[in-house]
TrEMBL record:
Source species taxonomy: Eukaryota, Viridiplantae, Streptophyta, Embryophyta, Tracheophyta
One biological process term in Gene Ontology: cellulose biosynthetic process
Pfam families: Cellulose_synt
Protein name (Swiss-Prot/TrEMBL): Uncharacterized protein
Domain of life from the UniProt record: Eukaryota
Primary residence: membrane
Subcellular location: Endomembrane system
Catalytic residue positions: 145, 499
Entries under InterPro entries matching the protein: Cellulose_synth, Nucleotide-diphossugar_trans
Amino acid sequence: MEDSHSVPLHHCHVHKLRANLFKTYALVHVLALGAIFYYRGAFFFNETPLKPYNLVHPFPWFLIFAAEILLSFLWILKQPMYWRPVTRTAFPERLPKDEELPRIDVFICTTDPNKEPTFEVMNTVVSAMALDYPGEKLSVYLSDDGCASVTLEGMKEAWAFAAWWLPFCRRYNVKTICPLAYFDQPEEESQSEEFIQDRNAVKERYEFFKKQLRSKTRTNGTNDANTTGPPDHSSLIQVIAGSSSIEANKPSTLNPQKLEMPLLVYVAREKRPSHPHNFKAGALNTLLRVSSILSNAPYILVLDCDMYCNDSISARQAMCFHLDPKISPTLGWVQYPQKFHTVNESDVYDSEMKSVWLVSMTSLYADVVLVYMVLSMHSCIYETLWPGSDGLQGPVISGTNLYVKREALYGIPINHGTSISSTYDCTSGNNLAKLKDCFGSSNEFIKSIGQIHKPKAIKDIELSSTLIREAQFLASCNYEKGTKWGEQVGYRYDSVVEDALTGYFLQSKGWRSVYLNPTTAQFLGSAITNLNDQLIQGTRWQSGLLEIGLSNNCPLIHSPSKMQFLHKMCASWVVFWSLDCLWSFCFATIPPLCFLYGTPLYPKVSDPFFLAFAFVFASSRLKTLNDTLIIGRSPRVWLNEHRIHLIKTVTCCVYGSLDCMMNKLGLRQANFLPTNKAGGVDENKYYKMGKFDFRTSHMFLIPLVTLVILNLACFLGGVARVIVARNWDAMFAQMFLSFYVLIMSFPVIEGVVFRKDDGRVPSLATLMSTAASLVFLSLGYFSLLH
Ligand SMILES: O=c1ccn([C@@H]2O[C@H](COP(=O)(O)OP(=O)(O)O[C@H]3O[C@H](CO)[C@@H](O)[C@H](O)[C@H]3O)[C@@H](O)[C@H]2O)c(=O)[nH]1
Ligand SMILES: [Mn+2]
């Protein structure tokens, strides 16, 4: 052990030059911001107004100024994200021997077999079992919130297939450990005879596995009582174990002497209509408790059912950080990015979320800044959020793909370190009573806390009926009553983005995290490739984030907090993201209306202030284009990312904020509608063609189409007016912006006017939006021309 620690297990590279370049760039933009504020402010204070002030109504000027101030405030909040960019590398080959590695529990959540196809979910399960980690130290738990028999049956099939798959992966050092992904790849050539034979045998077994699952889904997938009515069932926990029949026909080469299979456990917690079940957070907390009495690993890999382990090394990479004595006392989690295997080149919905995970650190020297000031409704978020926050105190929990420390989730204060077993000793009655108030009444659970770091061989667990009964008790819906689960212990319940809430809460307690983005994608998921689900998901996120922002958990005011001020700023920007809709609505309506009615809002081309706007516009466009090209994407991808952000800002941000307000006022209950991963051929056909699929609710279409029609009308009318009045100098900025907006909105215009297929914007939505834009036009007429 001594030896293995003399060389570092990981390396952290700080990009100082880039940070400095970025700061310089930001400074120039702040100066431009100052110029713009002066230009706007002078309107209210200057006795002899500069041109074109005498032409302008104070009301739109005031609104646009307010929008710019809000925008600048939000922009400032996120700046620290770029001040210390870092890149990390792990050296798993330097880890101590396998015997010295800690145990890992894998938690996978699924909820609805109709939306989350069982075969794909089981591929996630098998891929997690196949991680390159000692089998006796790995346990995989699946939480099935749907309590569907097809899922339980699927688990048994998965175990049986894993008994073939794992030895195959180990023997031939297979890197792509998800069977679905592996067998989708072209077959490797020039392999040994033995390999080819084994691969064919495993492939045959895989086809059988697939057939079994598909037929089970057809026969009982949708007929389950629990997937139709409200959930009402007791808890069901089963340790999946193989039978000897699966060994039949297995080639002897795939029967190694020393292969331990990981423990595999199916958990469906109790659900009753009268009890809130707190969605995924509730499911994860149940898994925390159930696993504590079975395997009780100190580290937990959390996965969504739609995210499989693509490569085998992630567990060892993560341990390079968790086992580094320098950082491990405060290290809460190691976060990997979410990458997707279902995205295509054009990726019209930016399903890949390039801005969050992908944009390479090499482009961190610049950012979108004042573009917001001039660029009507575009919220072009090309930032590198997670890599950047790693340079502060670490990325927030991002739902899936993280190796988190069990202690951190239990709310155990940092620095207990070695004394955890004595602090959580339940032999003293007084102590025990206190612990029960916090963690609930299970003695077994409380005993397990003190034993987190004690070695425990999973195979030694005596899977007695008493233990299973205890696990069922831990998974019952009354267990958390009167305890601190969901408030101080486990994942938090007060937001549907439980990941961000829990992450910020832990960071405020002093836990730190790291972001690891190795070249080979460690996890791959199925991205949402239809507009409707994108908008539903976006609305849920915005509602959940604002819920955090407007509560005591808001990172900016939460106290006491061990978050640095700069980190608090960035976290606050994330939770107030939905406020983008306020300024974007102003920008989407006021400049075009003023253009139509001949009211200039921006400096003349000949005015030096014009330069400030023009500089910001051009430099930020070039910067974001550069970001896209650097990660190897085409300019078309850049355009698409703008477009989808435009759409989401005027839909998800608006409805997310409304949803949050209604939750707060008690008019609505929080809801976590899982996204549909079953996307049929028909649903994906437009995505594959690189076209938008407007088959979504009118609620989403109307604000979007209204704004586009309004901008189109204003552009046409405004240009006519400029031609007549010959004031292009004063109106150039607005004319250019309207034109830019139209280019950006082209898919919507196409969906309204040109498309004839079923993915077009329905006529009713167009009609209602036209009526709404007429209202805006008349409002503009009365306020600007009267
Ligand atoms: O009542 C529920 C609802 C959802 N889930 C599971 O939660 C996961 C995420 O749900 P999904 O429909 O895939 O939502 P996404 O919007 O894709 O999830 C993102 O956003 C969530 C927060 O809203 C995070 O928890 C996720 O990790 C993150 O990937 C899935 O495995 C679901 O099966 C449950 O277990 N119980
Ligand atoms: Mn998902």
